Amino acid sequence: MLGAKLFMIGFDWQDYAAAPSRIFSFETLQAAGVFQGGLILALITAVLYMKQQGLAVLSTSDLFAPGVALGHAVGRLGCFAAGCCWGIECDLPWAVKFHDPVAFSLTGVPLEVALHPTQLYESGAELLLFGFLFSLADRKSTRLNSS
Predict the structure, then answer these.
(1) Exposure of 118 by Cβ count < 10 A (0-12 exposed, 13-18 middle, 19+ buried)?
(2) Interatomic CA distance for residues 142 and 59, integer angstroms
(3) Burial level of 125, CB count in 10 A (0-12/13-18/19+)?
């Protein structure tokens, strides 16, 4: 969460520099942050932990991969709930419309416009990726245990 918040503040630095007290506001606390920042800080922390514990970094990272995909799937549901990262206009039956003026003020999402739910597409793809990676991790751990 720390990395996600730091990257969020970094990406919107002009807004925060104009009003530094916003960094400690309830609005900033409620915002999830930026996925890449969370991932980068988590990877750095994980590698440092693995080295400190004497774990093989690449083999251990293989076992972390399904969790990263699952975490990203959940994060994209958060994007959908917040109204950020929206898709282009469409007229498909599963198009979504955002109605909340707060979502517009925070993310700029167009209101009352039918949009592709790109957040849900990506969440579904990440769930499929999680399932695939989890099955590979399970096979790998089964092979390691039988050796």
Answers:
(1) middle
(2) 14
(3) middle
74, containing H or E segment: helix 57-82
Q: Which residue has the tokens 């592709």?
A: 116
Amino acid at 10: G
User: Distance between CA atoms of 121 and 136, rounded to whole angstroms?
Assistant: 23
The tokens for 28 are 């900033």
> CB of 107 within 8 A of CB of 83?
yes
pLDDT in tens, the chain (147 residues): 788 888 888 877 888 788 888 778 777 676 667 778 888 998 899 999 999 999 988 888 888 889 989 989 998 998 898 888 899 999 999 999 999 998 888 788 999 999 999 999 999 999 999 999 999 887 765 555 555
pTM value? 0.74
Q: Calculate ∠ Cα 49-8-118, nearest 5°.
A: 100
Residues 104 and 110: their CA atoms lie apart, in Å, by 7
From the number of C-beta atoms within 10 Å of its C-beta (0-12, 13-18, 19+), residue 10 rates as exposed
- What residues contact residue 82 under an 8 Å CB cut-off, 6+ apart? 31, 32, 103, 106, 107
